[in-house]
Batch of 2 targets.
Target 1
Amino acid sequence: MVTSLEKKPSHEVVIIGGGFGGLYAAKALANTNVNVTLIDKRNFHLFQPLLYQVATGTLSPADISAPLRSVFSKSKNTKVLLGEVGNIDPKARKVMLGDEIVPYDTLIVATGANHSYFGKDSWKELAPGLKTVEDAIEMRRRIFMAFEAAEKESDPEKRRAFMTFVIVGGGPTGVELAGAIAELAYQTLKEDFRNIDTQEAKIVLLQGGDRILPHIAPELSKAATESLKKLGVIVHTKTRVTNVENDSVTFKRDNELTEITSKTILWAAGVEGSSMGRILAERTGVECDKSGRVMVEPDLTVKGYPNIFVIGDLANFSHQTGKPLPGVAPVAKQQGEYVGKLIQLRLKNHTLPEFSYNDVGSLAMIGQNLAVVDLGFLKLTGFLAWVFWLIIHIYFLIEFDTKIVVVIQWAWNYITRNRRSRLITGKEAFLGPQAVNHHSPFQATETK
Amino acid sequence: MVTSLEKKPSHEVVIIGGGFGGLYAAKALANTNVNVTLIDKRNFHLFQPLLYQVATGTLSPADISAPLRSVFSKSKNTKVLLGEVGNIDPKARKVMLGDEIVPYDTLIVATGANHSYFGKDSWKELAPGLKTVEDAIEMRRRIFMAFEAAEKESDPEKRRAFMTFVIVGGGPTGVELAGAIAELAYQTLKEDFRNIDTQEAKIVLLQGGDRILPHIAPELSKAATESLKKLGVIVHTKTRVTNVENDSVTFKRDNELTEITSKTILWAAGVEGSSMGRILAERTGVECDKSGRVMVEPDLTVKGYPNIFVIGDLANFSHQTGKPLPGVAPVAKQQGEYVGKLIQLRLKNHTLPEFSYNDVGSLAMIGQNLAVVDLGFLKLTGFLAWVFWLIIHIYFLIEFDTKIVVVIQWAWNYITRNRRSRLITGKEAFLGPQAVNHHSPFQATETK
């Protein structure tokens, strides 16, 4: 199969998904002698690690987005196609995009993952997650609208419900959200209201495992917990959410059930492979894990299909450590680069050793002067970690979009705790806080 | 009525609307001995003159917005209320906000104006206007989605419809939109597509009167027309739109009907006072002009109600020149400042001479190095006018937000023709361009 590739006049590579995996695969193949078609539902790549800053009013969506067409405008072998892939035909080597059929020689599937609600799909509307720009705008609307509603509410109990924020999931996103909301309530907004004292807001972080940020060293988890507590966040570990209602969340801890009344429940838990995983399994017989991620071969291909690669959050790559690599940007990026390189080498009848993740370390931002950094050989907390986090993200943003001014603005906003991007927009934004008295005021809507 | 004011222990000023008029009235009254309640449907003030740059992908909504609460966080006599006023009771001096009743001693109505579709309400969905952030996001979606749809379309006629943009209205907004879309098609996007040549896009500006930008000197109108033509925009004056369909617009010119097939029709014509004008007319008997604007007294009050002011786009102030002052930001700003000052003087039993607009001049941006500036004593075109326009807007943005970095970013984006804020977002964004083959693909939706 590999040897047949070089005989073709032009080798068609189709990449599904313009996240970190797909983007870096396409970059690795830009201006080479293959034809690349990059398919995405959206016209932009999203720098997801900073999405929580959109949700909490620090950045605008465009600040962390790069139009895919402009990324590849100078790469004439790369075609960007806007659309949603409905099916794949691995035998005929075709991808179905609505009525359109896109043939491929090599396929790279990089469609990522969604939040998992552990089978409780009704929770999704009540406790939205944070994967897309629209999710972030909706989360931002809920957070800021909750303060507005509290300001108008005279009943102290209802007011408390508006002033209580519950974040489910103690991974990086959950921790960063909790820290950012705490800073918002206790610092940014403290002078802004006349009837409420935003310092009375309650921010609760629920984590299933025995510590937050389980992917970093235990002592850093502990430091992160301390930092969150310092900011005013209540952290509950070993906690299993058993129910989510319109204005409450119930969790089990030490065999005890607790119900918190809250109008703003945010979801940052669980991982579920996107639907392309299921389609691939049906069409190729490849195995998926219980989260719907595709079990890939050591070279990131699908078993029996050396011309189909699965990378990023959708891939379960367990060959290196015996457990799946984490669903983080550096993994997706390195896998994309690996596959891009491998495709080129194969055309020259060469190959690469199996994929191996070069762990660059983990880090999480908790708040101003508060972060944790785990580089393995070096562990940082507090101010030093915070500076390190800033530098790393400035570096990534520059690499991502050489517009230095955007980076300066971002760093400036961040350092000055400016949260001017706190627009309440969308259909329900017009209704004012009286809207929150409706039956299901904070239900997920199509408003963006 | 006036003399009774000073006897009250605290004087309640209610301002409806946080646009330029309401904002500057509230600023004039900040930290004085009156109580101010500023009511707006939105939690932010919008710098509307730059909204067209959001619609065409240069700026993000937050770049031209200021959270009202943060503007007044240090002004403890000012309360911001999020909500929509449903009615006014001028006899009882009360404003109805949902179930809530807000009493006032002095009322300032600054709710602005909407686009007028000259009674053809069905056109509104087919040819959206540009007044809100949501409008701008929707317009941006339509513009960028049209190029995406053209890229996928194989039928040359249909493709042409996607590549044709019609802007109705030759005032500043229409001119600025036409210029920005021309720059987008002919410069920014020219390397981005593989199947279409964006240079083949057709941008048509339709103006009812005999020249565009009728509020500035005729020689500048002419210069602006030349600049637009240089950019590639087709300008039709003395043109009356007679019909708008899903994918066509028909107009009459020299008694001849012409139909243009276009998937993207944008509305920048007509002015219609917001609904508060009608409510005021019903409740106070005040006269409105045929555009629904309130005929105000020389001191901007409503006849018979010296404690009710109407300012900004909703006011028809014709005492100075015999015709209404234009609906532009400087008029609203000066009126807001005037009213703020007058209220304070009245409390000391003083008053002010009647309002008089200090015309600071008019300017319009057409494109890179192309603008027109009319200061009366000085008329500029081309590069000099463009630099002047930039400086003036930088000045206003600094005054507006003091976040110098935002201004640098904006100027940088503008000068480098960066249009990274070109996200297609909202419900329909997910569907990809195949969505445009639906029955009414570009209908206005709630997607933001």
Target 2
Amino acid sequence: MSSIGPPTGMRDWLPQDALLRQHLMETIGRVYRLYGYLPIDTPVMEDLAVLLGKGGGENEKLLFKILKRGEKLADAQGAGGELADYGLRFDLTVPLARFVATHQGKLPKVFRRYHIGPVWRADRPQKGRFREFYQCDIDVVGGASPDYEVEVITATERVLKELNLGKYRFRLSDKRLLPLLLEGYGVPQEQIGPITIALDKLDKVPLDEVCAEVQKILVARPAVSTKVQQFIRDTDEIRKVSARPAPYAFFDKVLRELEQSVVYAELETVHNNSMCIMHSVLTVNAHSSIVFDPILVRGMDYYTGPVYEAVVEGYPSAILGGGRYDGLIGQFAGKPIPAVGCSIGFERILSILQERKAGQAAATTARVLLVNEGQPADLLQQQAEQLRNAGLYVETSLAQDDLGRQFKYAETTGILWAIRRFDQAASSVTVRYLPERKDLTLALADFLARLRGVE
Amino acid sequence: MSSIGPPTGMRDWLPQDALLRQHLMETIGRVYRLYGYLPIDTPVMEDLAVLLGKGGGENEKLLFKILKRGEKLADAQGAGGELADYGLRFDLTVPLARFVATHQGKLPKVFRRYHIGPVWRADRPQKGRFREFYQCDIDVVGGASPDYEVEVITATERVLKELNLGKYRFRLSDKRLLPLLLEGYGVPQEQIGPITIALDKLDKVPLDEVCAEVQKILVARPAVSTKVQQFIRDTDEIRKVSARPAPYAFFDKVLRELEQSVVYAELETVHNNSMCIMHSVLTVNAHSSIVFDPILVRGMDYYTGPVYEAVVEGYPSAILGGGRYDGLIGQFAGKPIPAVGCSIGFERILSILQERKAGQAAATTARVLLVNEGQPADLLQQQAEQLRNAGLYVETSLAQDDLGRQFKYAETTGILWAIRRFDQAASSVTVRYLPERKDLTLALADFLARLRGVE
């Protein structure tokens, strides 16, 4: 059994990665709690009827179904009935809708929650795509006002800042905006979808290619095509500008151009709503990186209003996205429930952090190895206890290895400091900083301060 | 769909319980990391061959099996083949054995790990027993010396102390000890098992009943029966005594009594090993609560040496248990691998904390509600941002509710403090302490200090 491993497309988490994942979960959770969002959890499995409730067709293929247990199975097989009764959740949104229906009476009218947990999809495994992976959702259930969008965006920007991912940009639009704009420009209904799909590739495909595709779609209407392409080119330029007034002036101009169109009234309402959110986000957090981006397309069908996403410099696609989805959460509760949410690309961010080894260092610097130079094991352990009481994360070398091997062991497991001697009476330690193979003797308190400085 | 809920025997986690569970996981993890133990994780599912590898019979009934996906299913059904290929893990030990086999080359020779995660068993659901529940294991893989037992016990005692569960006692014995003692007293081989089972009930059943059962088992050998019962009564007395010398003197006497028996040499070795561990634990941590308890029975077959458990005053059965199990971890790696481990009764401890509402208070005191007395939402949110920058966990009242409702909302969600006014220029706040309906104005720094003092 030498090739024994986890199931196809699933991963084991060795300590360094498990620590990093934990660090990411704790950071995200802490920031959202700062905003009054609290954690919830649901079982990994749900009734098949729940999972397949709405738009089941697409998801059914991805489902890991749970075989019925015991005698019922034989009955079902005999009767040609269903073999499975439960399935593993494929996202955290369906379980949230079910959770809201189950606990209706117990939840506050406006329910702020976050949920970080694994989901499963029987996709074809490929690089960077797993069959078991984490999702991280934050939602306000029951919040109809745009103030909740402002809060979700502000909280999420703080998450990005705390994660030190580098320069990022938040983009805001409204699901309804692009179709209205295209309609205003004279694009026929049946071509709005294809153009939207073309625009959705803008982060991965050069602007010229996208415009060429639009040209092809609108080949029968050259005048419309020219206007739309110009709009796309201008917007693409403008959305890179962080200086605030410029984009507003530009979109005011666009709006004025469309003043005669049949959709103008609707367009103005949606546009004003977006502008209100923009304005509030910037009032709440003057350092916000938000830009207005009317050609932003968020793939999900279920969005019904404002949508947003964030991109990190150096990475092509969005690392998180969200929006208002007023039609989804009430599906099991049997009544409409407004909702705003944001889904953090947990695995994407984790792989960025892994690449940069950033969190890893943070998660491990504090660990030290208390080496064994021949002392009795119980005295060594007793010293380790004292060091732990002082707040150190101490691994004790209990194996009968020579000193070189002990140092080597520390290095391979990411430990930077080895304690060679602990003088309890003087409260001082002789430590080796392994990367530089350098020994020094200092007061325990100073050593602690130094470790914490590095943290 | 008004009765929609989670699958039978599984639970949703509402915020208060989710926070408490998180607090428990973080506390346990932090303490074990203090000892150099690091987290790992594995997929929730494993190959059926792995899960059913050893002693599969018992576990197969409990398995949630995963239906094969796609076309393969039709083939399998047609050919009368297997319908399932994976199953949900029913414990964390089998996955650890598989993990060790998979990553053999990458793990240190002595591998300290902890693993906290859900497992699934298709048991009949009943009060306090769930089909999805958490386990929490700490293990040293590859550690043959009794020093590792000392470390695991010391670390685990620190977990109990940090959890503030109240008075507890650690009991130590050795899997091999009781059978040897009984054999030494002249109990026939075939009656050792039944007596062990009777003794295992000692925490739940009165001593007299246990002795009566032993008498029945040994009815054919009255002299042996008397000696064994006396030994049980004395030991039961002695194991309640925490003053150290008394128990040692008693067991020395027992050992001398058996000096003529055929098992004496073996008995002495095992006894000495236990005494060494006892002695070292007390050297490492003078405040240890450990007692030697040769009538301790740990149910699991796989233990091969020292075993231990902890009981908390006021609760009948052990809340954690562990021991040495040298035969299990190497099963997939194809070679013997010594191991010491401890399994914390995560769900038991969680329900004790829930009963006491202990952790709940800790997890929620820091939260405050910034109430809305008619200010514009964006200014309110901007103030909330300032308060968060200062370190407060602030929920902003964005609903258009009157003040009474806002206070009420805070109380029902466990928030103790409402901020009525935040004077940014003076850096002062007017707050209401909700349990006493009392308002006061104080400097923000003082308010923060007060909140942290409560934490």
